[in-house]
Write a structure and sequence with these properties.
Elements lengths: L1 H22 L2 H20 L12 H31 L2 H6 L4 H31 L8 H25 L10 H12 L12 H7 L3 H13 L15 H29 L2 H15 L1
InterPro entries: ABC2_TM, Nod_factor_ABC_transporter
Membrane topology: Multi-pass membrane protein
GO molecular function: ABC-type transporter activity
Length: 283
């Protein structure tokens, strides 16, 4: 039992160390502050625009959707990008040489990204409640729904990031993840009700977890009558949980074999070859 859990414990410790380093990384703090500020500026700017068919501010409706988008981007893009970068710098190769090292590595990434995402979501909510008095909660049910959003969101997106990471050709391919994710967010009802999009785009948006995370977050933070602006005129809790669970199960099934394949393909000669090519580009 000790041998089984030792990599997990090591991964948790390493994840907490990475989390502490992340919170003291000035570059990360500045980038996060700027991106969050841009979203809040857009929300404030569109506060005078009403959600179609209601008198509710469009900018306020955007905040729960941004929470869902944050979960999606942190879970999928950041995890995939980390795998691509640390495959190239030799981190994964070193982890493979230690018994249980790859398990510890994955656990550490999950701990770090989960904690940082929760902190980001909490700060976004705190600022949101301070800036937008129109946000409401429906007692304990709202907070329970937000917990479900966080747990299911991380379960659905982190494995997806592990699946995508090994498929990226190199660490410079981050845009191959980010651009499609922002396109998905734009068609997931994050910034505008999905019911106002063409019907075929509505079907596309409902395939991905960002829409369902935003829907659940909206159900927790917006007045109940805003459900009329959603597809089917309701919050569709059952469908949201089912879709997110499918994503979580599919990701958890595909991630381990793809990660094992990636680590098996790594070698010292490949690492040296990549470094030589990098030096030639710099030179």
């Amino acid at each position: 039992m000790n041998a089984t859990w030792a990599p997990v414990r090591a991964g948790v410790r390493h994840g907490l160390i990475e989390l502490r380093q992340l919170f003291f990384d000035s570059h990360h703090i500045v980038v996060t502050a700027i991106s969050t500020g841009i979203f809040f500026a857009a929300m404030v700017f569109t506060r005078t625009v009403a959600v179609p068919g209601t008198g509710f501010p469009l900018g306020v409706m955007m905040l729960p959707g941004v929470l869902g988008m944050t979960l999606g981007i942190n879970g999928i893009a950041t995890m995939a990008g980390s795998l691509a970068v640390e495959r190239e710098d030799g981190t994964l190769l070193r982890a493979r040489t230690v018994p249980g090292g790859v398990t510890g590595y994955v656990v550490g990434k999950v701990v770090m990204l989960s904690c940082s995402t929760v902190v980001t979501a909490a700060l976004t909510l705190g600022v949101g409640f301070a800036v937008f008095p129109e946000l409401v909660t429906h007692g304990a049910g709202s907070w329970l729904t937000l917990v479900v959003v966080l747990v299911l969101g991380l379960a659905a997106t982190l494995p997806a990031g592990i699946v995508i990471g090994p498929l990226l050709p190199n660490s410079h391919s981050f845009g191959l993840v980010m651009f499609p994710l922002y396109a998905v967010a734009a068609t997931s009802g994050v910034f505008y009700p999905l019911t106002r999009f063409p019907e075929w785009l509505q079907y596309v948006g409902q395939v991905f977890p960002i829409y369902w995370l935003g829907l659940l977050a909206r159900s927790a933070l917006l007045p109940a009558d805003l459900a009329a602006t959603e597809i089917g005129g309701s919050w569709r809790y059952g469908a949201a949980v089912a879709v997110l669970a499918v994503w979580a199960i599919a990701g958890a099934s595909l991630a381990p074999p793809l990660l094992r394949r990636m680590t098996r393909q790594e070698s010292g000669s490949k690492l040296l070859s990549r470094r030589d090519k990098a030096m030639q580009r710099v030179g």
